[in-house]
Amino acid sequence: MARLPKSELCVVLVSGGMDSATVLGIAAFLGYSIAAIHFNYNQRSKDKELQAFDALCDFYGVKRKIAVDMNFLSVIGGSALTDDSIAVPDSLPETSEIPLTYVPFRNGIMISMAAAWAEVIGAKKIFVGVVEEDSSGYPDCRESFIKAMEEAVNLGRKPESELRIVAPLIHLRKAQIVKIGVTLGVPYELTWSCYHGRERHCGKCPACRLRRKAFSEAGIPDPTVYEQ
Amino acid sequence: MARLPKSELCVVLVSGGMDSATVLGIAAFLGYSIAAIHFNYNQRSKDKELQAFDALCDFYGVKRKIAVDMNFLSVIGGSALTDDSIAVPDSLPETSEIPLTYVPFRNGIMISMAAAWAEVIGAKKIFVGVVEEDSSGYPDCRESFIKAMEEAVNLGRKPESELRIVAPLIHLRKAQIVKIGVTLGVPYELTWSCYHGRERHCGKCPACRLRRKAFSEAGIPDPTVYEQ
């Protein structure tokens, strides 16, 4: 991967999880000047995720950062991540089933907001850590969606410059992502995956299960301290 | 236009201006059960617009409504509507020029959020009052953008049902919109257009100029009280 002049600005969506941390590591490695955006939607783990976002920005020396409040998503409900009346499941969903933790059109809303910010600050790329296979089953993680969203964004913006949505992990499996990240020195110990917002990772929710599996399949020691 | 069974639910984006009031009138005339969504992005006229939204919902008996805070857009800046360092212009912009009052990708963000809500409540249509010609010059008011956004939304949602974005005014001129609205009994006296948030419409900003022109060209008495 060729390094770029430091002046080229990109927006990176950083949730604070492993995937977005890896994307941040890739953007930093490529030499981009980085503007980081984080979204809080009143999900159970919001404090832990914000803490991870701040720690990752500090690690990569990202000065231009915003944390956006999307409480709207908890107001409208519909997901186990934000709606207290729906329990977070303990197991991974069956393939092809849309999980209870799906937040309706979350990536569409986040990419739209990132596109608005990119236009204001003059960034020509948005880096997102969506993964089509392996980790999700969410319809807004598919490459076809990302491409359609990129087209919509470009039709809906000032025409001077094209905005690209870069999803470098989209066709990777979790274990491959970890291997790339470790090679690039991504500080996974600073990231947060657990759907619950307790002091330590629960070790049992779908996100913790995928986290464990990723390190285990990659054959890399897991730096995470789990409750069990 | 054929009336529908009252059970068919749609989401209507209602800013409180003339166009969205007309769309609300059209959806009510068609017999939809209506869920109304309003967006506040800390624009100068936010209180007046919210007041107009509430009054229009009361008029049409809309019980299911939400007002969403998008302060994010004023945080990122970039528009005369939200950024106090950019003055609202007094005249209409030249054709093909993007006005200072353009808020980056505003419609993209609003449609994304409306799509999330539509999914949660089971609505299959989103009605928006965007107008391609005559009133704007905003890239996110073009039909090509609305179509692209519709495609992205459908790729990014649960696959059970297709969501349509209905933009009944998109190819109309402002005067035609007013004529249709008056025929349908739309209460324009309850709407708000002015970019400033003072007690009365200023009569001079681009939005007031278009409002005046619409009534004048339609040959319909303007119910608005202007400052001058």
Describe the 3D structure:
- Two copies of one chain form a homodimer.
- With 228 residues, the first copy, chain A, is α/β, with parallel strands linked by helices.
- Chain A has one domain: HUPs (Rossmann fold), CATH 3.40.50.620.
- Chain A has a five-stranded parallel sheet, sandwiched between helices.
- At the A-B interface, strand 3, helix 3, helix 4 and helix 5 of A face strand 3, helix 3, helix 4 and helix 5 of B.
Key terms for this structure?
homodimer; 228 residues; alpha/beta; Rossmann fold; 5-stranded parallel sheet; 7 helices; 11% strand
Cα(first) to Cα(last) distance of chain A is: 39 Å
Q: What strand line-up does the widest sheet of chain A have?
A: 3-2-1-4-5
Return residue spans of chain A where pLDDT drops below 50 for at least 5 consecutive residues: none
The CATH C-level name of chain A is Alpha Beta
Largest interface: A-B, 42 and 42 residues
CATH homologous superfamily label of chain A: HUPs
What percent of the residues of chain A sit in helical stretches (DSSP H or I)? Answer: 25-40%
According to CATH, the fold-level topology of chain A is: Rossmann fold
Could you say what the CATH architecture of chain A is?
A: 3-Layer(aba) Sandwich
Number of strands of chain A: 5
Describe the structure in brief.
Two copies of one chain form a homodimer. Chain A is of the alpha/beta class and 228 residues long. Chain A has helices at 18-29, 46-59, 72-76, 106-121, 143-155, 174-184, 206-218, and strands at 9-13, 33-40, 64-69, 125-127, 164-166.
